[in-house]
DNA sequence: TTAGCTTATGCTCAGGATAAGTATAAGCCA
DNA sequence: TGGCTTATACTTATCCTGAGCATAAGCTAA
């Protein structure tokens, strides 16, 4: 950025770089959030940047639809990663990765594809609070992060580190904030508790559970989850992950799957109805335990009626 | 994105592109929002991508600090633009623009620089609602957008167009939503009411007021403003734009400058105080009209204490 | 047949947040 | 001193939110 404004000519050879696209493709099946992975679940789908398509988005859409046989409902750009040394070691990789978030349905993956759907909590087991705070949070992460904080050179720095940890992880009676997933990942990375952070230096004994990924793909995934967890609260995007018809409980389970925490059932229904986000189809769910539920569909009309909000996560304490 | 996963080798020559950085640098002076411009206020500062620095952010910081002599408080990536033909005409420009939002203070710009500070409402005169909805909104934009809607091929499409217009511009008793600035710009662009949209095809008579910019810089600016208008509501970033000490009214005026609308004074103070975002310095403002106000400073401590919110824009109807 | 389990759905209630307004204080200047 | 301006304290009505109670409507096993 130390250069002159764009108009000035710079030899292209001096500026040539390469670019990749990386996609975080999300689906929710049976109340479990999934992401599309390749390379034996160790990488996000990615490919070289191509100018064939009119825009990055349309290129991504075409590619995903070919892979999954299902239209890609919602697409949004996430972040462009270009930091030196992000792939681990060595000199500056003259390359950027442009990442996207896409929402779709699992359904059938083309068989030929080497792609799979993996549960996203495999990669972030400490992020699933639907059954209360996971045991590994206090049993494993807390003591190791405390040790890391203690290892700071000065008492002041030690206190600062621990305060950062307590805020981002909700320790010491602080609230758990599901949107801080990226900050939590980066903190664990900084504390060298993540395989990706200690690639060659070994020391695997003190690492933290959770499946690793190649390069910085797990960071990109965390970025995508964070964006989605924030987005469902102010934009009605959950519906992109639902079948055409669904019960309110199924909808609620999807929201909970993404947020990683439970919501208050009655209040959730109240919100959906008073915002007129859904309408009854007239049909009733079959093959269920308990009283059969009415089926609903998303009211696409709201999008035209007003600038519409999402799901405000009516939280549940229990 | 139609290619194989990253591990497969692709000759670099086939993928080589170039990248630019574009910066939306914001300051607020005397209650007016400004952006840094070059090229006679017709372009945003931009330059070739360089890997000299550890990250894009640090490169941007260094560059801005050299230009303004003031540290760049807050930096955030905005968007990466890579759509074919975005610069207007011709074939695919094998180039991407990575844009950033930065918050700073105007102060002294290094004299040698060709950079200036321009009021951002020069580029979007319809976005300033601090003195009520601007006249040109109903006098000019409304009829032209209505004509554009009417020009759609079918009655259904005409209705859809007009509904879109009404929602994004707050016509017909709908609420004005200051965050929709990018959607408004894109609508005007689509309706060919923006000089950038009709580069060669002329027809300047029916255009809409507001200073144009080169390439897609005005779109990038709109993206930055939209992001900032959203951000001030949930993150305490306004303070990056303030001097070390300020009165609550000055703070309020800055928020209003960014949002383009007025807030309720008493409620604004209540929010600031009950969130403990500011603390009294003990000093009193001098050289003012009316009763002198206490001076406040930002409580940096809140950032460490908790995941902190911003300013919820206690709106004012008048 | 019915008790007991499950999920669906309707309704109430208290506390807190919000929008708006009233009232008073404290400077200055004509 | 009256009138103008801005600062600051308080009040009020309304809406939103979190939480819980109660009842409905299916099923299965005793």
Can you describe what's shown?
The structure is a homodimer of 318-residue chains. Chain A has helices at residues 12-15, 56-68, 135-150, 155-169, 181-190, 217-231, 248-259, 265-274, 301-305, and strands spanning 18-29, 32-37, 46-48, 74-81, 95-103, 116-119, 278-284, 294-298. Chain A is α+β, with helices and mostly antiparallel strands and 318 residues long. Chain A folds into 3 domains: 15-121, Alpha-Beta Complex (Nucleoside Triphosphate Pyrophosphohydrolase), CATH 3.90.79.10; 132-210, no CATH class; 233-305, Winged helix-like DNA-binding domain superfamily/Winged helix DNA-binding domain (Arc Repressor Mutant, subunit A, Orthogonal Bundle). In chain A, strands 1, 2, 3, 4, 5 and 6 form a 6-stranded mixed sheet that branches. In chain A, a hairpin with a 2-residue loop joins strand 1 (18-29) and strand 2. The termini of chain A are far apart. The relative contact order of chain A is 0.13. The structure holds a DNA duplex (30 and 30 nucleotides).
């Amino acid at each position: 950025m130390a250069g002159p404004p764009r108009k000035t000519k710079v030899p292209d050879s001096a500026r040539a770089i390469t670019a990749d696209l990386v996609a975080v493709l999300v689906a929710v099946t049976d109340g479990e959030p999934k992401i599309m992975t390749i390379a034996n679940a160790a990488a996000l789908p990615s490919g070289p940047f191509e100018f064939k398509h009119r825009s990055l988005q349309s290129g991504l859409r075409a590619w995903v639809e070919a892979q999954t046989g299902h239209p890609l409902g919602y697409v949004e750009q996430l972040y462009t990663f270009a930091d030196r040394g992000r792939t681990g070691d060595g000199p500056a990789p003259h390359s950027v990765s442009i990442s996207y978030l896409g929402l779709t349905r699992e359904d059938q993956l083309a068989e030929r594809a080497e792609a799979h759907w993996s549960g996203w909590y495999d990669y972030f087991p400490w992020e699933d609070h639907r059954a209360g705070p996971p045991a590994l949070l206090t049993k494993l992460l807390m003591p190791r992060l405390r040790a890391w904080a203690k290892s700071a050179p000065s008492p002041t720095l030690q206190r600062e580190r621990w305060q950062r940890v307590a805020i981002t992880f909700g320790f010491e009676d602080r609230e758990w904030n599901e949107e801080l997933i990226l900050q939590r990942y980066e903190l664990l990375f900084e504390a060298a508790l993540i395989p990706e952070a200690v690639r060659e230096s070994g020391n695997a004994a003190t690492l933290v559970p959770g499946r690793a990924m190649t390069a910085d793909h797990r960071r990109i995934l965390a970025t995508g989850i964070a964006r989605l967890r924030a987005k469902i609260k102010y934009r009605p995007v959950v519906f992109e992950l639902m079948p055409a018809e669904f019960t309110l409980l199924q909808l609620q389970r999807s929201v909970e799957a993404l947020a990683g925490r439970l919501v208050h059932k009655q209040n959730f229904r109240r919100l959906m109805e008073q915002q007129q986000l859904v309408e009854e189809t007239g049909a009733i769910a079959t093959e269920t335990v308990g009283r059969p539920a009415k089926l609903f569909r998303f009211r696409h009309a709201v999008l035209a009626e007003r600038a519409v909000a999402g799901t405000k996560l009516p939280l549940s304490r229990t």
